[in-house]
Amino acid sequence: MAGTFFKRAKGDSSFKRLLINLILIVACAAALYPVLRVITVSLRPSGSVFSMDLSLIPPDATLASYQSILFDPKVGFWTWIGNSLMVSVITAMVALILAAPAAYAFSRFKFAGKQPGLIFLLVTQFFPATMLLLPLYMMLIQLSLINNFWGLILCYMSIALPFSIWILKGYFDTIPNDLEEAAYIDGTTPLGAFFRVILPLSTPALSITALFSFMTAWSEFIIARVVLQKQALFTWPLGTVTLQGAYYTNWGPFSAAAVLISIPVVILFLLTSKYLVSGLTLGAVKG
Amino acid sequence: MAEVRLVNLAKAFGPVQILKGIDLTIPDGEFVVLLGPSGCGKTTTLRLIAGLEEATSGEIFIGERKVNDLPPKERDIAMVFQSYALYPHMTVFDNMAFGLRLHGVRREEVDRRVMEAAEMLELTPLLARKPRALSGGQRQRVAVGRAIVRNPKVFLMDEPLSNLDAKLRVQTRVELSKLHMKLGVTTIYVTHDQMEAMTLGNLVVIMNQGIIQQMGTPSDVYDRPANKFVAGFVGSPPMNFFPALVDGEEELFFQMASFRLPVLPERCAALAPYRGKDVVFGIRPEDINMGGGDGAVHIPVTAKVDVLELLGAEIFLYLSSPEGIFVASSASQKLLSQKFLKLKATAVSFIARVDPSTPAKEGDSVQVVFNLGRSHAFDADSERAIY
Known about the structure:
CATH architecture of the domain at 86-244 in chain A: Orthogonal Bundle
Largest sheet of chain B: 6 strands, mixed
Number of helices of chain B: 11
Strand content of chain A: under 5%
Structural class of chain A: mainly alpha
CATH topology of the largest domain in chain B: Rossmann fold
Number of helices of chain A: 13
CATH superfamily of the domain at 86-244 in chain A: MetI-like
CATH class of the domain at 86-244 in chain A: Mainly Alpha
Largest sheet of chain A: none
Helix content of chain B: 25-40%
Shape of chain B: elongated
Number of domains of chain B: 2
CATH topology of the domain at 86-244 in chain A: MetI-like fold
Order of helices and strands of chain A: HHHHHHHHHHHHH
Distance between the termini of chain A: 19 Å
Strand content of chain B: 25-35%
Largest interface: A-B, 25 and 34 residues
Oligomer: heterodimer
CATH superfamily of the largest domain in chain B: P-loop containing nucleotide triphosphate hydrolases
Distance between the termini of chain B: 37 Å
């Protein structure tokens, strides 16, 4: 696909290429501008947060906001990050552990209810999380999981799992059956073929799934707001809200928190990006 | 090494019956080729032997052991897939060692066997590469290597050469033949390419519509086909078939739509019960020669050259004999079937494989002679060979 695109782009007229580049520049600017403004605000001294100056790095730039977020014991930034990391990592791992075998079954085996099951999973994605808030809350009360990380993880799982199953199923479908059959003949069981052949070949899809599940949990606010009420359990989206007062919001530390919080996600994305390119199965079959 | 025996083996996918109860014994150490058109059940047979499909009924024996209920890994077989099915995330070495490691073979032994196989298949410089860095021919050799390191009782090969280009295919065919002679392992090879079947197999099993049509040596199936299907499937270009009526009193003749050929005296006994009946006369393109014949046994047939294909060492002439002379004895005329009367009105097309020095051109009218000693006759209804 990409090859065809670039081939075609090469043959396009200069005007068309200019136009495409202009559109891309505008789109990038629209996406990046708010992020850059947040960085700018995080660097301003507390007195000039509302300055109309447009420079990216303000002339009186200071790391005071970062300092107060990172080292002020009253803020509790590290607690929020720790809680968010724990919830997000567990969500991503459990989603992978549950979604991979489920997706494999949907991809390879014939069983009653396979098609309706897949459609049901897709349908669950049509409902926004806010709509499920009340039933989820009532269920968690019944299970005594309010003010409990596992309650929150359970909610995130219900969002992440269907999507993960679909992504992984789609990927497993592209892996030729011959590979598993070759593994059976070489001496594995079906489970062995799954672990030794299918999973190692699925790193691109597993990375996407893990990243998606992590992101689902990392930046989620509404469900966390309902499930967690104890300050000690707050994840970072809840924690940063505590920086807003009823009459005054300290935008400098707030922006600094926003910048710091995006760092783990960027690192995660950079780590998984090399797996995001598909094509690992190249060379498996035919010439 | 082991004998492979299939007893009344059947396989159905839902309502579709793919194998209709086949019986086949593959002797120990033989190279047997399952040959047939697409959908004839040859790959299904192979997959049943491998344990990748479950038989609907019947029994499969490898050696003395009934293996119907055993998973593939316990059948002591190795398989080369049409797609090679190399593990893309493993190096060539790991691909070849994978099966050995799973069977708990010691590390030094794994190394020794893989190196030995790599040496034999000239894969040693490629051992550290991943499959995607290999050419089609190299991948094919790795797939074979993966099979031979295990020292299995039976090799199963599912059209392993079909993804190679023509030149490489011929080369690999010879290598596979040598490998079989060296290892002597019972090999079951599936193909739809008759050239591969004839050159590789000690025995060829021709299949069609889930039934074994004939099993024999390559020369058996070529020179003495059991039925019209085998006669038509083996050989390229295929055997020419002419609807014919067996005519005559003491001497017998094949009466075709537009010409008439004598039945050789030694064939008369076999054809006597067909006197006055429809049969199918068959002759291979190489048994049709240019020339005037001797006027007695080798009667010339006049035909028009529709198309001429020069292949270098030989020429294929696509001929048609015009409708016309129709001579039948009065006794036979009464017995003529409606089908035959209809055929009389149509020209018959056939192919001759002749010497490249033949001066014929497209559109020419030529005389050809059929080598009756190498002709065949088939029952028109059952299509079984009469001789």
